[in-house]
Amino acid sequence: MSLNDWKEDGRPKQMGDQEKPLNDSAATESQQDVDFWDHNQNGVVENEVEVVADAVEIQEAVEGQEVVEHPEMPSEKSEKKAKRKKDKAKKKKNKAEDLNASDLLGTNKGVETMFRNAVRSEMELLALAATKANIMISLNGFIVSALMISGAFIFSSSPEFLIPASTFMITAAASIVFALLSASPERIGKMQAARTWLKDFVRGRSKLRDLKTRLSSTETRFFGGSQPNILIYEDRVKLQKDQYWEMMQEIMGDRKQIYEKMSDHLYWLGLLADKQFKYINLSYAVFRWGLLASLVAFIGVKTLPSLLMPPANNAAELRSLGINMFNGVFEPSAVQQLPDGKLLIAEDEPNHAFSIISIDKTGRFVEDEALDTRVITGFKRRLSDLEALARDEEGFIYALTSHSRTRKGNRSPDREHLMRFKIQDGNVLGLTSYDNLTQVLETDHKLHDLIRERTKAEVSFDEINIEGMAFDPVKKRLVLGFRDPEFNNMAFVAFISNPKDVFERNAKPEFDEVAVIDIDGGGIRSLNYDPVLKTYVIANEVKDENGQKFSQLWTWSGNPTDEPQKISLPNLQHITNVEAVDSIIVNGKPQMILMGDEGNASQKITAKYMLVDYSQLGKQ
Question: Transmembrane ranges (predicted)?
Answer without folding.
Answer: 133-155, 161-181, 282-301
